[in-house]
Design brief:
By secondary structure, this protein is of the alpha/beta class. It contains 6 helices and 5 strands.
Length: 290
């Protein structure tokens, strides 16, 4: 049984941990509000951009070609995965959940047929140790990334698909649902499948008239579509990270409080036992002298 001094040391340690986790919870809550506002601003634009591109892919007449409109017959031989994780831990299952999603896609193809583009130190470290080829990488600070910072990685992904090095491009990130709910999600952003994706667009397929021309417009819209999807995924993941960290630190703070209560009760019992022992010794000594 630990001594009262040891129990007091454990109580001090638990109180220090409780102060740290409480401070981290407050910081995550403050950053979550800004990240949540950024997601609310970017999500409608990204969704509408995807709807427009799937509709355009189904309405373009023959003779109009673009490298990002390339379709592959059958199953893809090589794939690219854009993975968005966090740089740090202490956020529950946030990193492990999205890494598991990416691993489910990558495992059937093996390390030689997968090209990884990673945001976040956790994903970079995980797949590098397992021998996967990481084409491009970028850290994700707590304040998030700007559009300009995500652009080189989305450009690298576009180049892989346009050159034919990969046949499909997947985006794996964590979709922000609420402060206590985040959902790992996989989206195939290239190639664009009008047969399946266009079904989400309400109404019949539109026959478009392009001005100045389909080639010029698509050369601007298709790269922007990929860049927008990647940037929005980063925003979603940053908000999810702060939400997961806030929830995790809240639970840690509560657990530290329970531990302090348990140790305090144990300390009181130890003190009572020591007092009872001293009284018994005094009484025994007095009876021996009588």
């Amino acid at each position: 049984m630990p001594t009262p001094r040891q129990i007091r040391a454990r109580i001090r340690t638990a109180k220090n941990i409780q102060q740290i986790t409480k401070a981290m919870k407050m910081v995550a809550a403050a950053k979550l509000r800004r990240a949540q506002d950024a997601v609310a601003s970017a999500r409608p634009y990204a969704q509408k951009m995807r709807e427009v591109m799937t509709s355009l892919a189904g309405g373009i007449s023959g003779g109009v070609t673009h490298p990002l409109l390339r379709q592959t017959a059958g199953e893809p031989k090589n794939i690219g995965i854009i993975l968005v994780t966090g740089d740090r831990g202490l956020c529950g299952a946030y990193n492990s959940g999205v890494i598991k999603k990416a691993l489910e896609i990558a495992r059937p193809f093996g390390t030689d047929r997968v090209r990884m583009i990673c945001f976040g130190r956790r994903g970079i470290t995980f797949f590098r140790r397992r021998g996967y080829q990481i084409v491009a990488e970028h850290m994700v600070p707590a304040n998030g990334l700007s559009f300009a910072e995500t652009l080189p990685l989305s450009t690298a992904a576009r180049d892989l698909f346009a050159s034919g090095e990969i046949d499909a491009l997947y985006l794996v990130y964590t979709r922000f649902m609420s402060a206590i709910s985040q959902r790992p999600q996989t989206t195939e952003i290239l190639p664009i499948h009008p047969e399946t994706d266009a079904a989400a667009v309400q109404g019949p397929t539109t026959d478009y008239i392009f001005e100045p021309g389909a080639k010029e417009i698509l050369s601007q819209l298709l790269p922007r579509y990929v860049d927008t999807q990647v940037y929005t995924a980063v925003l979603e993941s940053v908000a999810s990270f702060h939400g997961a960290q806030m929830t995790s630190m809240s639970s840690a703070t509560d657990n530290a409080g329970k531990m302090i209560s348990s140790y305090t009760l144990q300390l009181n019992r130890a003190r009572q036992a020591a007092i009872t022992k001293e009284i018994a010794e005094i009484v025994g000594g007095a009876e021996a002298l009588a």
